[in-house]
Amino acid sequence: MQTKEELSQRGKKSRAKGQRFESKVRQDLENKGWIVSKWMNTVDLDKDGNIGKIVPAKRKYNPFLKALSLGTGFQDFVCFRSFGKSEETIEGTPIPEEYINKEEKKSFEVIGLEVKGNGYLDQIEKGMCFWLLGHNIFSRILIAKRGKKAGEIEYLDFKERYNKN
């Protein structure tokens, strides 16, 4: 049985580890030519999970009025970049033709990125992802997770992983 102090220390270490991984993912995407920004909004769904709207994310505080975190929105990051026909996606595959605007000189891909150590989303997060994709807020949503090798990052496409029929 763990004491309250041991659980507190475990939580602090877990949060710090998660923040380090988020930072590492952000750096990886910036090195690949993406512009990455913290997403400061979240999706507010009704009780049935149907009607939603994007609202600013609330800050998290402790009882002594100290801010714990500023941006607790869902997705973690919004990423975008301009591209041409020869560009590749994060996974190294060619960009699908439907994402390329042929009339414009520049086209942009805007994606949402959720960073999860294990790569799994809970039911509420899945619902938010379906809502964001259904309302064309993002062209794709990626889930970044730790790879099998140390220091490796895997990017999973939400649509492929959680295909809703």
The residue ranges in which pLDDT falls below 50 over 5 or more consecutive positions are: none
Proportion of helical residues: 25-40%
Strand order of the largest sheet: 1-6-7-8-9
Q: What is the global morphology?
A: globular
Biggest pleated-sheet summary: 5 strands, mixed
What class, by secondary structure content? alpha+beta
Q: Quaternary state, please?
A: single chain
Distance between the termini: 44 Å
CATH structural architecture: 3-Layer(aba) Sandwich
How many structural domains does the protein architecture include? 1
Number of distinct helices: 3
Q: Would you count the extended β strands for me? A: 9
Strand content: 25-35%
The average pLDDT is: 80
Q: Tell me the name of the CATH class.
A: Alpha Beta
Integer-rounded radius of gyration: 18 Å
CATH topology: Trna Endonuclease, Chain: A, domain 1
SSE succession: HEEEEEEEHEEH
